Amino acid sequence: MPGSEAVAYDPAVPKHSVPAPRSLHVRAARVLEGNWTGTSTVPSHGLYPHQWSWDSAFIAIGLRHLSPLRAQTELETLLSGQWEDGRIPHIVFNPSVPLDAYFPSPDFWRSSTAGHAAGAPRTVQTSGIVQPPVHALAAWLVHCADPGLSRARGFLAQVYPRLAAWHRYLLHRRDLGAGSLASVVHPWEQGMDNSPCWDAPLSRITPAPARSFRRADLDHGAPEDRPTDLDYGRYVRLATDYRDAGYADGTSDFAVEDPAFNALLIASEHALARIAQELGATGTARHARAERLTAALIERLWDPAEEMFFCRDVRGGELIRERSVSGLVPLLLPGLPQKITDALVRTLGGAHFGLGDSTRLVPSYDLLGEAFDPHRYWRGPAWFNTSWLVERGLRTHGEQERADALRQAVLDTAGTTDFAEYVDPYTGEACGATGFSWTAALTLDLLHNGPGDDMSPTGIRTFEMSDRGGDRG
């Protein structure tokens, strides 16, 4: 594939060897244009031919710099697949795509029948699981890109009730550990599908027989870069059991509290507070809830000795002591105590993640971990969306030099890999698909946030600025 050559990190490489910002902007815009279906954006046409939930949130964040209208449409299309119980499904299926183009397909999920009790839509086919709640944050940022258009279309008034219902679902139906945090009931829900964090809780799951499903992902990716057949069999078993239980929560043997999932929920609670204020209500209660959730995140998932947030196995009750990029994403939160942010920055630059030393983008998993693999899906490669989240978090807490370096590394690597899905964290070699939508979208976002910019989209300074009636763009 073009642009998939290995790109070794060399700080001495001259600046003319990487794409200029204008060229990079044009190329990123072409990726998003090519992946646009007319109402939403596919992650990539081959491997991911439908609409994915957290992909669309990240895509909207980038699209707002090209077309705020298209960014609004992206989120509106996704929300058209929302269930009456509030969940936003992780896939909204395109009916024009053949069933065998992706597995699990609509006839596996059977959302309109198996999800009837939970209020699945009848006219749109979806999956039955969810993905991280980036959507309110995306909606707020999309509004800020063109407040006049947003107000004229009633964009926030339309999406706010749906986003509030989504958060209620997570905070009430998914508080499976009774500790105020949302649990995921399938590895695909957290977004980092194949992370070693899931190995221990997944070991309790009897895999579905290999003959009972056909993996369409292997038609587009090397088997050594994808989840194993054993892991995939467990994913299928979990999804089958959840479907056959009518998508009722609390019935699965797999339930995990994840730091990134909950950090994104907290960031989106802050964003919902901003949206409420824009609509003339008060955001005080939502900001207070976000602070309570931050306290619960620290109480349940923070390990001060290891200077890391860990997942918690709700069924077993213990922390899962695997270092993942998920444990760094809480840097996004403006309410983190300084001693925790300082510790996370040390962990980020230390031997386990090596940022700025042995790696330029943030590895998805511990460089020193036994399960580390620089190419296998979420078991080591660096992803652009998680590096974007960490960059935003560094900027939120005043780590401007580190944020600027990570920003430049993301832009350079996106350009030299043709907007790859993910990369080898050491060499920058492209892995997975190229022309990947969230890579292009977040490249655009970083191009519109220059070096030295101390305004994070989730930072408290940004919210204070909007309260004062400053520039919302």
UniProtKB/TrEMBL annotation:
It comes from the Bacteria. Transmembrane segments: none annotated. Pfam families: MGH1-like_GH. Keywords: Glycosidase, Hydrolase. One of its GO terms (molecular function) is hydrolase activity, acting on glycosyl bonds. Residues 453-473 are annotated as: Disordered. SUPFAM superfamilies: Six-hairpin glycosidases (SSF48208). InterPro entries: 6-hairpin_glycosidase_sf, 6hp_glycosidase-like_sf, Glycoside_hydrolase_63, MGH1-like_GH. Gene3D superfamilies: 1.50.10.10. Residues 464-473 have a biased composition (Basic and acidic residues). Residues 48-439 form the Mannosylglycerate hydrolase MGH1-like glycoside hydrolase domain. Belongs to the glycosyl hydrolase 63 family. This is Trehalase family glycosidase.
